[in-house]
Design brief:
The chain has four helices and twelve strands. The protein is an alpha+beta fold and about 230 residues long. The protein is globular, with a radius of gyration of 29 Å. The chain has helices at about 5-25, 35-45, 65, 130-140, and strands at about 75-80, 85-95, 95-100, 105-110, 115-120, 125-130, 140-150, 155-175, 180-190, 195-205, 205-215, 220-225. A twelve-stranded antiparallel β-sheet has the order 5-4-3-2-1-12-11-10-9-8-7-6, covered by helices on one side.
């Protein structure tokens, strides 16, 4: 039944019950509500517009809120495909590898600012090899191979090879929660099983302040910003 026909039917029922109320709608001597009145109240409740569910306000990230009570490195991560955004705090550092975690258990491993692994999303990156990529990003150009590893449908670790090239796109200023950084923007284009994947890095010296890094088909790309 369509919505218009349904409303019309409810109105018809309500009118019929109004006629019944003319003769038997008064309260009973014992104070109970007559059945006709109960039916009418229920019918009229169907006609009332439903109050929409309140939409939660998106969390607003500020430098003060993200770095509150944090003395170590903090990153801000956005996942546009998942419509999610969170701040992650570093919990471990082992040489060039840093482990970050969010309040809800999302974990990212960054090696020299490049995504080495993810946990907690679902279609996660188990591990990767990107030593050559890091060298090209520092240099500003290069062609190289990369490897990404995932758990496949048979629950086995599967390695996906990529052939990549890196291009220098010139100087660019990026602003991260109010702080400006003078960087060079580097574009990485990789061929993965006949399709192209693009990553972007904004680097100053050896620090990657901001990046767009592809994770998987389900997750898409993450925007990672180094807050402190």
């Amino acid at each position: 039944m369509g919505p218009i026909l349904e409303v019309a039917m409810h109105k018809f029922i309500a009118l019929g019950l109004l006629a019944l109320l003319a003769g038997c709608g008064s309260p009973s001597p014992d104070g109970t509500t007559p059945l006709s009145r109960q039916m009418l109240d229920r019918s009229l409740s169907w006609l009332k517009p439903k109050t929409p569910e309140p939409v939660p306000e998106p969390e607003v990230f500020t430098r003060a809120s993200v770095t509150k009570d944090q003395t170590g490195p903090v990153i801000l991560v956005s996942a546009p495909k998942l419509e999610a955004k969170a701040s992650l705090n570093m919990i471990q550092e082992n040489g060039p590898t840093r482990t970050y975690i969010s309040d809800d258990g999302i974990v990212l491993l960054l090696q020299n600012g490049l995504l080495a692994a993810s946990r907690g999303f679902g279609d996660d990156l188990m591990s990767s090899e990107h030593t050559a990529a890091h060298g090209a990003i520092l240099k500003g150009s290069g062609q190289y191979e990369r490897v990404l590893r995932y758990i496949n449908s048979q629950n086995h670790l599967e390695a996906l090879p990529l052939t990549c090239s890196l291009q220098n796109k010139g100087a660019e200023t990026v602003t991260i929660l109010g702080h400006k950084h003078n960087t060079f923007r580097r574009l990485e284009i990789c061929n993965l099983a006949g399709r192209q994947i693009e990553n972007m890095f904004w680097i100053s010296g050896k620090t990657i302040w901001k990046s767009h890094q592809w994770v998987s088909d389900q997750i898409g790309s993450l925007t990672i910003e180094q807050v402190q």
